[in-house]
Amino acid sequence: MKLEIHVLQNFAPSNLNRDDTGAPKDCELGGYRRARISSQCQKRAVRQSFVLDKLLAKDDLGARTKRLVATVATMLAEQHGRDRAHALAVVMGALEGVGLGKSKKGGEGDDAWKTEYLLFLPQRTLTDLTTLLNSHWDELSALVAPEESDDSADEAVDASGKKAKKAKSDKKKEKSAAKSAYPKEVGVEVNRLLEHARGAVDVALFGRMMADKPEWNVDAACQVAHALSTNRVQMDFDFFTAVDDLKPNDNAGSDMMGTVQFNSSCFYRYAVLDVDALKRNLGADEALMKRAVQSFVQAFVVAIPTGKQNGTAAHNFPSYVLAVVRESGPSLSLANAFLKPARPSIKGGEEMDLVDDSIAKLEGYAARLSDVTGDALRLAWADRDLAGDPSAPTRAKTPSELYQRVTERALGATP
Predict the structure, then answer these.
(1) CA–CA distance from 9 to each of 127, 186, 255, 300, 302 (Å)?
(2) Nearest-angstrom CA–CA distance, 233 and 354
(3) Cα–Cα distance between 219 and 108 in angstroms, integer?
(4) 407-411 — which CB contacts under 8 Å span 24+ positions?
(5) 226, 203, 391: which is closest to 280 by C-alpha?
(6) Residue 65 DSSP one-character state
(7) 102 contacts 174 by C-beta, under 8 angstroms
(8) HEC secondary structure over 206-242
């Protein structure tokens, strides 16, 4: 069973997702330049929506971090009264005991204890790991010394007094030694806690990959496309100035000036969820599965990237949502409906705005491909009245109705 979400969303002038120069991201489609919002940007907005809109409980979600050591050490200090400096070394030792290492970039303070990889873990893992390490505190703390926190794991002092980097082979030997010296029964439990991430909805949706620990990998149940403008994009520039409030009465000139780029576009956004894969990742918890599917559908529709929003406030709700549930057949992006850019026009003496033309192109293209798909349900919602058409999808009266009906059908209920 697959669930597809197609969204048309027109944004006011904004810069929601920037490239390395600070300009709005763009690309080419059909020989025309288009505005673009990356899939990564959208997925982060969805994860934030889970929390901000209170769609899922904290224990149902994951945390993406390199600061696991410092966070768990703080919990050991605050909840169990352990010395934090010693706790840092204990937690790092636990990670080294299962084959993970410290970041090679080093740093100061807590940054010196960042992990080698950006870990994606369930929030509850932090609590469970804290409880485990505290219960074995005496045994584990004897293996490490808090003074180690002051030394760089990758540096040593040679005969001349200069710092020299250790060879890769030495690092591997140290990592292997640390792992072999660690209590086996504790290492097994730490490994289990860190490996078990499928119970977190966002980990199950978007996946997790670790090159050194392939057994921890989670195949994503969801795919998200780059959002593309249905229209040909026109980049604009905003020239800004700022005046010093404490400047004397002579206010000629400016104390800061510059330019920022922005555009206004109607975006086509697309995501597909493999419901069976999500169920495999989450397990047999039917209640969690229902919360996960409905929360994802709602979050993908409402989530808006935060880029430059303090200066643009482009909080524009989608104008059109089409949800498709398929029991068989391939997933189907409708991006090619916009190979010829949408644009405002006059049809039959009636003015059509950019969104009107985008909806017409999308529904027309979807209808022409309906024979090659195994649709169990096609349900759409729009912020405007749409002309009746036998080939058009069923209309939902509200977004909430769409979320509920699509979730029920995706989980096997009759439409």
Answers:
(1) 40, 51, 38, 12, 10
(2) 12
(3) 35
(4) 407/290, 407/293, 407/294, 407/297, 409/325, 409/376, 409/377, 410/1, 410/3, 410/273, 410/275, 410/293, 410/325, 411/275, 411/289, 411/290, 411/293
(5) 203
(6) E
(7) no
(8) HCECCCCCHHHCECCCEEECCEEECCCCCCEEEEEEE
Angle of the 286-302 helix axis to the 275-282 helix axis, nearest 10: 130
What are the DSSP E strand ranges found in 263-401?
A: 266-274, 320-328, 345-347, 350-352, 374-382, 394-395
The structure tokens listed for 299 are 């979050």
Q: Which amino acid is at 347?
A: K
What is the token pair recorded at 303? 């989530």
Q: What is the rounded distance in angstroms from the CA atom of residue 91 to the CA atom of residue 71?
A: 10
Residue ranges covered by each domain of the chain: 2-61+221-240+261-410, 63-198
Query: pLDDT, tens digit, for every residue of 132-153?
Result: 999 999 888 888 765 444 444 4
Tokens of 395: 């209309």
For residues 66 and 117, is the Cβ–Cβ distance under 8 A? Answer: yes
Bridge partners, 294 (sequence order): none
Measured distance between the N- and C-terminal CA atoms of the chain, rounded to whole angstroms: 14
Neighbouring residues of 254: CB distance < 8 A, sequence distance ≥ 6: 241, 242, 243
pTM greater than 0.90: no
DSSP class per residue in 279-319 = HHHH-S-HHHHHHHHHHHHHHHHH----TTHHHH------S
For tokens 């907005």, the residue is 45
Q: Give the C-alpha separation, 6 to 359, whole Å.
A: 11
28-56 pLDDT per residue, tens: 999 999 999 999 999 999 999 999 999 99
- pLDDT tens readout for residues 258-273: 888 999 999 999 999 9
Q: What is the CA radius of gyration of the chain?
A: 26
- For residues 248-262, b (16+ Cβ closer than 10 Å) or e, as one string? eeeeeeeeeeeebbb
The CA distance from 274 to 205, in Å, is 9
Residue 11 neighbours by CB distance under 10 Å: 23
Give bridge partners of residue 115 from the DSSP assignment. Answer: 102
